[in-house]
């Protein structure tokens, strides 16, 4: 699993900005005739040390290092605590420099405090905005990760799905064939065995060659023909040049199963389904002859579309008119190169 990127502030940013603030704070001293180099260095060192402290204080007070939650408002208790801590540290730094270096003349303490509060506000707001931006990015990453996991789970569920109604109907058909001692019973059992063998072999694969998908479809269609006889007609006009392309396994089976679910299939009104290629799409076309009271939720086609978006990053296309229903599925030609 991809590791979550930790929020960090570059040491170059911390030290670079602190040195820059120290230099800026000392510029007025350069135009003060009374100030000496010693005074400028002391003034700069106080600002530098204070800026570094404020950076690390605010960084380590972030929710990553404490039990506090990120405030919705920019100005909250964290800022107040930071200001008070900054005032205390600035006083300590000024006193320490006076004692250590015996400075005869320094800026008034209030000037240092005002400077400290200004630096504190600048660092706090900049860091706050950086952290808010980081959290927003992490939320986006987590949302995408959750979406990918959800799509993966849907795909795995759909990939392992074998319609129990189909199995039930196939066993009923087999029973009827055995009862009437149909000589095709043995072939039916072999085709049923082949279909479920293909199911076990292919369910762990994300993509399979179209040629293998058509082998699975051949067994599936044989079982359907045994059940519906001439009430079901499949015309395969797929260009053999497309056989090296790839699609998610059982796509064609699910599309044909969807056709049968919503349309009348009978000897009086045969359901005709045509397979052919059009540009870089494989088209599954059927004549519309809806069952009475049939209501389509679109869940089946949406699941198939999610699989293609997850694996091939392309969407299926649906073309419907009064007489025909077409589903165009994109073919992947990078299968062998992967």
TrEMBL record:
Keywords: Membrane, Transmembrane, Transmembrane helix. Residues 153-231 form the Signal transduction histidine kinase internal region domain. Pfam families: His_kinase (PF06580). InterPro entries: Bact_2-comp_sensor_kinase, Sig_transdc_His_kin_internal. The chain crosses the membrane at residues 12-31, 37-58, 79-98, 110-131. It comes from the Bacteria. This is Signal transduction histidine kinase internal region domain-containing protein.
């Amino acid at each position: 699993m991809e590791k979550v990127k930790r929020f960090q502030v570059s040491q170059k940013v911390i030290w670079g900005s602190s040195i820059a603030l120290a230099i800026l704070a000392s510029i007025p001293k350069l135009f003060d005739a009374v100030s000496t180099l010693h005074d400028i260095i002391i003034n700069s060192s106080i600002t530098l040390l204070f800026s570094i402290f404020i950076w690390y204080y605010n960084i380590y007070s972030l929710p990553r290092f404490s039990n506090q939650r990120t405030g919705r408002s920019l100005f909250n208790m964290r800022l107040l605590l930071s200001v008070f801590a900054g005032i205390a540290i600035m006083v300590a730094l000024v006193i320490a420099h006076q004692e250590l270096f015996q400075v005869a003349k320094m800026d008034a303490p209030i000037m240092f405090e005002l400077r400290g509060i200004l630096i504190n506000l600048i660092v706090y707001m900049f860091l706050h905005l950086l952290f808010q931006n980081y959290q927003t990015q992490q939320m986006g990453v987590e949302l995408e990760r959750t979406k990918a996991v959800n799509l993966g789970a849907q795909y795995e569920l759909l990939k392992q799905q074998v319609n129990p109604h189909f199995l039930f109907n196939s066993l009923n058909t087999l029973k009827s064939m055995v009862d009437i001692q149909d000589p095709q019973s043995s072939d039916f059992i072999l085709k049923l065995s082949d279909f479920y063998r293909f199911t076990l072999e292919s369910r762990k694969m994300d993509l399979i060659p179209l040629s293998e998908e058509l082998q699975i479809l051949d067994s599936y269609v044989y079982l359907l023909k045994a059940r519906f006889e001439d009430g079901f007609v499949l015309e395969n006009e797929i260009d053999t040049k497309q056989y090296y392309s790839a699609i998610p396994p059982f796509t064609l089976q699910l599309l044909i199963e969807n056709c049968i679910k919503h349309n009348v299939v009978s000897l009086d009104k045969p359901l005709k389904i045509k397979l052919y290629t059009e540009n870089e799409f494989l088209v599954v076309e059927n004549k519309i002859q809806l069952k009475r009271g049939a209501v389509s939720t679109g869940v089946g086609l949406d699941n198939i579309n999610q699989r293609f978006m997850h694996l091939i990053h392309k969407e299926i296309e649906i073309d419907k008119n009064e007489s025909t229903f077409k589903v165009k599925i994109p073919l992947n030609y990078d299968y062998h190169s992967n």
